[in-house]
Design brief:
The protein has 13 helices and 20 strands. With 503 residues, the protein is an alpha/beta fold. The protein has one domain: 3-Layer(bba) Sandwich (FAD/NAD(P)-binding domain), CATH 3.50.50. Helix 5 crosses helix 13. It starts with a strand and ends with a helix. The structure holds flavin-adenine dinucleotide. Flavin-adenine dinucleotide (FAD) binds next to helix 1, strand 8, helix 8 and helix 13.
Length: 503
């Protein structure tokens, strides 16, 4: 059932077995997992079915950091406050976190997950079903077949890898089913403004929900899940400070730290005279009789990462003819044009077979406690402190991006007799950067409450009944797009909560 929170009786108490805050891919996945259980579920969603500027503006805040752009708001562009969450305008690239991301790497500070790859990957099939993409099986015949026309063999620093692409909008895909469910109520236009706790701040007693038109009510449940995204989830914990003054679950000053995204740099242009056939595969292609499509990209092999001490990164090659290419930084556009005209000194005997494209590198970020979400001084119309983001990179990311681009240039020369013309080199390449819009970190998972916010069950340390389903719990980002793993971990949390609520 869908309910407009503005019509709920003021100061009433809504009861349920489970309360979920947020209806993006994480929140909807948990709600769907609970439909067959008969347990009663309440979803609190700030937005409505349509985009509303007044609601979206609740995401405004203060922004600083290496990748912020004058006149553009990361806080507004990187998420959507609406039923269905940011799946209302994402790109649908799905890929699990790579195996080596789960392991400590000596050259990546604070690397490794407290969960094994096997544990997280065991939920990938159920996540793929929810995301409406094909199941991942890198070793399958189908993948090997697809790899055949690709460039890099085992002796290379790079390998060809894939993302599955399907732009599943969770509101469109599951809205009708949620609305029809008898054990589920979605309260739209309802904003969690305070997590209410006992005097010791060790147990959640309820959620304070407010609407923009001044209504207010309370939700009480057996367990609570924050699925409000990786920026808003730390904000909600920090702002829930009526009892624990430093913010709920923030006894060790960890809430909001380790904020990450995937810095994405247009590193240069690739010219491959007479070799466009070899590059054909690096485009999106549909999977016959399967869901969505596949897109190939380049991944540094784990051995190369270790040998050159590099961060994980996704290198995407985009032919200039593609209508999907992003706006190019000016000098890359000029460079590419010149390459097309002149062949840069190489004989272009078959112009129509000459490949010219851009090279984009999306890097993982080093976990960095100084990269932070905190609260600003200004209040939003609901009376909540606006968020403040200081997204900080280290020296390692630009060095790793440049070294990766260098390696690629050498490999392209060797394998394609092509050339990569780098537009980066002196100083951090952030003028050539874009956001990936992949908020991660902020409520880091670690079994030790001194260095983590959630435990391995995704429960907030020291607070009974309060869980997180979001990329805010990722301890290390890896380079994969985050939503596949957000949904896999949401399904895992659902299984855990079914046990908790039935016991
Ligand atoms: C342009 C763009 C392209 C992207 N492309 C990709 C891609 O190709 N692949 C990929 O993996 N990821 C991509 N992403 C990221 C992806 O959208 C997110 O990883 C995903 O949506 C996160 O899901 P979530 O449920 O955790 O959070 P969200 O989808 O952000 O949902 C959070 C929900 O919480 C609600 N909410 C927030 N605060 C409150 C509150 N106080 N009270 C009640 N409700 C609240 C919001 O309204 C929202 O519905 C992209 C993002 C953008 C912006």
């Amino acid at each position: 059932m869908f309910i407009d929170s503005r019509t709920v009786e003021r100061d009433s108490v809504i009861e349920a077995d489970l309360a979920i805050v947020g209806s993006g891919p994480a929140g909807v996945s948990i709600a769907k997992e609970f439909l067959p259980t008969g347990l009663s579920v309440v979803v609190i969603e700030s937005g409505g079915p349509e985009y509303e500027q007044e609601v979206q503006d609740l995401y405004k805040g203060e922004e600083s950091g290496d990748l912020m752009k004058e006149g553009k708001s990361y806080l507004l562009a990187s998420r959507r406050r609406q039923f269905g969450g940011t799946s209302n305008h994402w790109r649908g690239w799905c890929r699990p976190v790579d195996p080596e991301t789960f392991l400590p790497r000596s050259w990546v500070p604070e690397s490794g997950w407290p969960l094994s790859q096997e544990e997280v990957w065991s939920y990938n099939d159920r996540a793929s079903e929810l995301l409406l993409v094909s199941n991942f099986d890198y070793q399958s015949r189908e993948m090997e077949q697809k790899k055949k026309p690709f460039l890099f063999e085992e002796d290379s620093a790079f390998e060809t890898a894939f993302v599955h692409v399907n732009i599943t909008n969770f509101a469109d895909a599951y809205g009708a089913e949620l609305e029809a469910a008898s054990n589920l109520r979605v309260f739209m236009h309802g904003n969690l403004t305070q997590i209410l706790v006992d005097p010791e701040a060790t147990r959640v007693e309820g959620l304070e929900v407010k609407t923009l038109d001044g209504n207010r009510f309370r939700v009480e449940a057996g367990a609570y899940v924050l699925a409000a995204g990786a920026i808003e989830t730390p904000r909600l914990l920090l702002a829930s400070n009526r009892v624990q003054k430093e913010g709920l679950g923030n006894g060790s000053d960890q809430v909001g730290r380790y904020y990450m995204d995937h810095p994405m740099v247009t590193a240069g242009a690739l010219l491959a005279p007479n070799r466009s056939d070899h590059m054909r595969a690096y485009r999106k292609f549909r999977l016959p009789a399967r869901k969505g499509s596949l897109r190939a990209f380049l991944l540094l092999r784990p051995e190369a990462q270790e040998r050159y001490q590099l961060l994980k990164s996704m290198t995407v090659l985009r032919p200039l003819a593609s209508d999907q290419r992003p706006p190019l930084p000016r000098e890359i556009a000029r460079l590419s044009y010149e390459l097309m005209q002149t062949g840069a000194g190489r004989p272009v005997t078959e112009p129509e077979k000459t490949y010219v494209g851009t090279v984009e590198i999306a890097s993982e970020q080093v976990p960095n406690p100084e990269s932070r979400i905190t609260l600003g001084d200004e209040l939003d119309p609901l009376g909540m402190p606006r968020v403040k983001i200081d997204w900080r990179l280290t020296d390692q990311e630009p060095a790793s991006i440049l070294a990766t681009a260098d390696l690629l240039a050498r490999e392209m020369g060797k394998r394609l007799r092509g050339r990569v013309y780098l537009a980066i080199g002196d100083g951090p390449p952030w003028d050539h950067s874009r956001w990936s819009n992949h908020p991660m970190g902020g409520t880091r998972m670690n079994p030790d409450p001194k260095v983590g916010v959630v435990d391995t069950d995704c429960k907030i340390h020291g607070v009974d009944g309060l869980y997180v389903a979001s990329s805010s719990i990722f301890p290390v980002a890896g380079c994969s797009n985050p939503t596949q793993t957000i949904v896999a971990l949401a399904v895992r949390l659902s299984d855990h909560l079914k046990g908790v609520l039935r016991s």
